[in-house]
Amino acid sequence: MEHRSDTPHAQQLILGRIRAQGGGYARGQVWIEGERIAAVVDGEPDPAVLAGQGGAQVLDVGEALVLPGAVDAHVHSLSHAGEGVVASTSAAAGGGVTTIVEMPFDGPGPINSLDRLRAKQDLVTDEAVVDVALLGTLEPGGGWRRAGGLVDEGVVGFKVSLFLTDPFRFPRIDDLELISVMREVAETGSTLCTHAENNEIIKGLLAEATPQRSTDPLTHTRTRPPVSETLGVLTALEVAATQGASLHVCHLSLPRSVDLVRWYQSQGADVTLEVCPHYLAFTEDDMLTQRGRLKINPPLRTAADREGLWERVEAGAVSVISSDHAPWPTELKDHDVVLDNHSGVPGVETLVPVTLGHAWRRGPAAFDAAVAALTEGPARRYGIDHRKGSLVPGKDADVIVFDPSSDAAIDERTLHSNAGWSPYHGHRPGGAVTHTLSRGRLVWSAAAGLVGRPGDGRIVTRSGR
What we know:
The chain is α/β, with parallel strands linked by helices.
């Protein structure tokens, strides 16, 4: 993941444990010049070299780990008016996320036209604390014809849904139109990501369950059985394979879904997948205590499913781990009737500590795979790995420090999302982010808090754009 080189003149030096060439983590040096990585060097700095740097700032983090900044491939900043780009990117900074891939299903209107895209670009330029890559979407009824123009204007890819969440903000692309969508996205050379759940199964089960007004939180899991996910995944995979599209399947909750993606990969299809920390940390039984706050689509699954996902993370089968940050306020999550609640949880600030803390306890294979799925995996999938995702000279100096020895509990009162709550409140993941640098600038630290400001972040586009 990291590339070694000779030490040039640099302005900053970070000392800590870095990924060793032979595996594991050992003391090393990350040198930064301006906004870019200048060098990554094993071992302790030569005092003569350090003296010759002309007063380079030195941050020595001891035995903590120095890692690439995370790329959160699934963030909804504007689905709810109460959040916004300032809050979501501040939360990202506080959690070691230096780039967010921003979803296009905004409350005022989905990002499916050049006018809406340009307005959002202006908003992000004014408000982002860390860097942002933007997705567009393609509405039903021929929206795929706009794909090329949106890519030319700077989107890194597209997202569509195979399930009808909202006819305006989050509509469904049916199977027939999905063929045209996949074909056109393939022509642009970008990536299509999908919410892959079978519409007919879920809508039918919801039609039966909704009138019952059940307060049993597991009603939600019963209306979205495993087959509703796997059929949706299969539809997306088969259409992508036949159309030659680059496909990324979002927020998978089942080991079987991961295996389906792996099979298509073995056939040569350009397909990847993501899982989320809530599927790696919770099970459906946690809904009995957190109730509607853990209503997520797809739903939480069994303990065996959770373990199966971790086994696939360890095996390197999971390309991306993302938050699916959906910062609904508590008034939309605390209804007694579970189906009345909005689906999704805030998570961009807890993505890194929860994922890496759990992975560290499982061992080196899980930890290395989790780091890759938080950094280089999403950067590569969205074509921004020329700047993001690894500690390589010439790339952006997006650097975080992770302390696996920390036993700190997550406190929702200190988080930066305007949601004001977290499903991980009180959880001790087994590690903590202590520093976040975005393009060489400290934007958050445990000691100083949030020091990044709106406007510090920039829009990131695909390589060659």
